[in-house]
Structure formats: structure tokens, C-alpha cells
Amino acid sequence: MSEVAVSKAPGDTGAPIAKVGTVALPVIGVHPSAPQGQPAPTPTHLQVLLPSGKTGWIPASVVRPMDSDRLCYAKTADGAWKIAAFDQSE
Fold first, then answer.
1. Which of 2, 48, 54, 84 could covalently link to 25 via disulfide, CB atoms 3.0 to 4.6 Å apart?
2. Chunked mean pLDDT (size 10), the chain, 90 residues
């Protein structure tokens, strides 16, 4: 993601609590959340865990998910590496 201001709450227009740049951050929540038993709406904001240990909210439109397809390799009895599985992202 490009540099973005991290806010205290979704849509907060006050002073940012931090700014983050091109880093990978764990997502720990989404806004709006789905009411129990209903399908989840498209998130507008993501709650992220910052390197400082604090949490904050960023717009969902500025992030890129880290989903990717992966090849999984395993060593055979004769010591050669072979493709053992293909892990496909959604």
C-alpha cells in the first residue's frame, strides 16, 4: 500500500495516530461488520495491528491483499525435489 494515515476509528477525520507506508500489516477487524447470521458487507475500513503494538483503521481501498498461488515441494526418497501440492488462493 502507499503511505496512508491510520485513524483511531473508521472514517475518523481527526489527527492520525500513525502513518504507514509500504509494509505488510495484520488485519484484525473490518468495518462494517456483519450482523450475526447475515452475509458480510464489503468492508470500507480495516483495523490493522501496527508495529508499535497499537491498532488503528485504514481505508480498505488503499490496501492490496497478499493472496497468491503457491507450489509446495517435497523431497523424494532419492533426494530429488518434486511438486507435492498446488495451494491456490481464492
1. 48
2. 87 92 88 86 93 93 78 86 78
pTM for the full predicted model = 0.69
Per residue in 34-46, is it b (16+ CB within 10 Å) or e — as a string?
eeeeeeeeebebb
Pairing between strand 45-49 and 55-59? antiparallel
Q: 21: which 3 cell numbers?
A: 507506508
Neighbours of 48 (CB within 10 A): 23
Query: Per the structure block, which three cell numbers stand in for 48?
Result: 490493522
Please state the length of the chain.
Answer: 90
Of residues 56, 36, 37, 34, the one with CA closest to residue 46? 56
Alpha carbon of 22 to those of 10, 12, 19, 75: distances in Å?
21, 22, 10, 35
- 62, 38, 58: which is closest to 48 by C-alpha? 58
